[in-house]
Every structure is written in structure tokens, then in C-alpha cells.
Amino acid sequence: MRILVSMFCGWMVWASFVTWRLTHPEVAVLAGIVSVFVCEATIHRAERKGLQRERMQLRQQLNLSAHNINQLQESLSNVQAELHRRDIIGTPAARELLKRQEEAMNAQSSALEDRTSRQDRMFVAMERLLALQTEQTASIQQNLAELLTQLASEPRQHVTMTDSVLVQNREEERMRRQYRRMSDEFIAELFD
What we know:
The structure is a single chain. The protein has 192 residues and is mainly α. The protein contains three helices and no strands. 93% of the residues lie in helices and 0% in strands.
């Protein structure tokens, strides 16, 4: 496009020289060729100045981008240094905290296991005590039934409570002692 504009400019110069008959046709052709070069140089200079302006703008943008990149790199190195410093300071404290938490969890689990084992022992002892008490109650009821049967079969006119207490006294005393001894053992097991 630019060459066409330059050629049109040279043709116009040649046509004006030929039309007005200012010089010989050879000079008119030479003037047309010179005008083509002059027009081309002018257009070229204008384009060159436009490219130089664009280059300056791009250089300014590049300098601004380089400045921004340098600031970002500086900020990044500051952040990395701060993180490294915090890591150096915080790591022992964090490890100590984790160690204490682990110790606390171990203590809690052992206390829970101990409590569970004590409760299990207490339940077993209570079951034994309940079984013994059930057994003693059944024995006492059987002895009372036998006593009533014996008293009913003996010919007496007057039955007193002292007779039944005297008859039952030795057996009942033995049962009480056995019950007391088992109760004491159970209580001792609970508080051990």
C-alpha cells in the first residue's frame, strides 16, 4: 500500500512536469523517480517514529513490569524468611505441646482402664455378695420352715418365741458371722 502511494506521488509529479511542459521528458521522469523516493522516505520516517513511540511505551511497560516483579520477589523472600523464622521458633513449642497432649491422652486412657477394671471387680464382688445373701436367705427360710415343722410336730401347749430363738441361736450365729466376714471382705475389695 505504501509503495502504491509513493508511485502515485511520483506519477503526479511526472504528469505535472509533462502537462506544464516545464522540462524535457527525461527530466520529468527523473523528477517523478526522485519524488517517489522522497515520498517513500517521508512515509518511512513517519512509520519509524510511530514504531519508536511504540517501542518507548513497551519499554516503559517492561520497566514497570520488571519493577513489579522485583517488588513481588522481595515480598516473597520476606515472607519466606518470616515463615522460616516462625518455623524455627514454633517447631519446638509445637512439639512440646503435642508431647504434652499425648501424655495427657495416655494418662486419661490408663485412668479409664483402671476405673473400668475397678468397676468390673466391684460388680463381680457385688454379684458374689448378692448370691451369698440369696443363699443365706434361702437357708434361713428353710431353717425357719424346719423349725416351724418341728415345733408343730412337738406336743406342746404353749409355744414361745424364746424357744425358737434358742433352737435357732447357734445356726443363726454361725450364719451371721459368715455373712459379716463376707461383707468385710467385699468392702475391703472395693476400697483396695
